[in-house]
Design goal:
Shape: globular
Number of helices: 13
Strand order of the largest sheet: 9-10-11-2-12-23-13
Strand content: 15-25%
Helix content: 10-25%
Amino acid sequence: MLTPTAAMAGCQAEVDHRQAAPEPATAAINAVDRALVADGGTLTWGINEFPTQWNPHHQAGNLAAVHTVLEALLPIPFRVDERGEAHPNPDYVIDVSVTTEPEQVVTLTLNPEAAWSTGDPITWRDYAAMAEALSGSNPEYQALGTVGYDRIAEVRKGKNKYQVVIVFEQPFSEYPALFSPLLPEEYTADPESFNTGYLEQIPVTAGPFDVAELDLVAQTITLERNADWWGDPARLEAIIFRTLAPDALDAAFLDGSIDLYALSLDSGSYERIRSAPGTEIRAALGADYRHITLNGQTPILKDVDVRHAIFLGINREVLATAALGTLGWEPRVLNNRFLMPEQPGYADNSGEWGKYDPDRAAQLLEEAGWTAAQPGEVRTRDGKPLTLRFIVPQGYAPAWEEAELVQSMLAEIGVDIKITSVPGNQLFSKYVQPGNYDLVAFVNSGRGFPVFDSLHQWLDAVDDADGKPQWRTNVGRIGSPEVDQALYGALEALDRGTAIEQLNKADRLLWELGHTLPLYQRPQIYAVRDTLANVGAPGLGTLDYADIGYVVQE
């Protein structure tokens, strides 16, 4: 998931380290037994983008806000615990069996009580239709990615309509990541329904909540308790997701307009919020990390030596300190795109490209033909200046401050950075996805499935019918067959050791290609009313929306 504004930090306030923020835990949700959670109440949840495409498997639906809302509304067959381990979700799947010989076969026994909001039962047909839609066999489906689905040979009915038999043509180790969330057959059976069925609407659901209202003008989504829910009933009566500009979320929380939101890493914002009465700051380390992506198809950045010079010219420790240091957390530079430091197998694969070395960066630019008459001047080649455009979302001061730091660093090696602010809700749709940028920084949010979560971001281009390369959702537009081979090797490995080996190989190759500069693991930080339970920063885990609510007051 892409998060446009979840990032950086300013340096405008110093923190008293005697009251420094605690190191993020593996999960921070104020976990409380649902018996101690009050029945009723409304939660107003602040989000910073209002998507138009609510199909999370569509190319335009890969946004954090989409997943935040839909986890309350659609089937999630497998839940992930705070250690990143997947378990069947009994609300939808009551048994799982896996065989590997002669081919990998995963059999899901579905909960026969599970039903769509239309009244239709959830059956093997929903899984089969979705697998076909995301298989890649029909290019008219504007699918986010085909990872895993392209390895399925067939999905068939088991002993009855509530049993799904998934036969894999090639091994797929991260199968619990598939069908999450699940869409009804009606909206995956043909490209038109898939592409437009959830456009500006959420027509069919199957979760502990229903959609009461989706207001395109007010940019709010109101959910109400699903009276037909077959699982433990939702404790809350309603959840209202309210969209606000990033710089307005703080004020809305402080005046009581919202009860929960993802807090930015702005130190001033953090200080204001944490001192507010009745507030908790809940932080956890998950598979989220901040990075700078370079557009490898722009005229200047097509040159790998220039990309590597940019890498070497950016002091990542300074950026990490600016983002995290003033919050009381020890900043740590991240040197892996797939595994976080807390996960088994994490390795520093940056080699010669991960250190700050402006002298080497300047040398690479000289060798690439970008020269300057004297230090500090903007380099030129063939009369053209070495100018790059850094895109940042409007209304989010920390992102601008981060870009200014990068601007200052790269000026030292003769690179001119022009910072351009664009509407936050257009950052991806009109700039990042079409390739209308040189540099951009954002957060990758994962769910504990390191390849499945991001494979589409790294795959090499494929030619369309006219022979033109299509980068799909690889917004950096940089790739190679060797990277693809290593990533697919990780997917096929059914033993963890081999998968980790292949992941680290792919990461080393990406460093060599100059694809995306990892900065730091971003803590999930939420400002939450202290009376709220079972919500906040889940780390690698999955929230159970039915259990969210207010603690019973004695």
